[in-house]
Amino acid sequence: MKLYASLITLSLIWGMSFLFIKVLVEDIGAWGIVFIRCTFGALTLIGIMLIQRKKIFPKGLPWKTLLVVGLFNAMIPWGLIAISETKISSSLASIVNATTPIWTSVIGVIFFSIHLKYKQWFGVLIGFIGILILINLDINQFFKEDLVGMGTMIAATLCYGFSSQYTKRNLQGLSVMIISLFTLLIGAFGSLSVMLLTGEVITIEAVTEPVSIAAFIGLGVFGSGLAYLLFYYMIQKGSAEFATFVTYLVPITAMLWGHFLLDEYIPPYALYGLVLIFLGVYLSTRKTMRQQTQNVSEVTGR
Question: Which residue of 5, 28, 101, 202 is surrounded by the most CB atoms within 10 Å?
Answer without folding.
Answer: 101
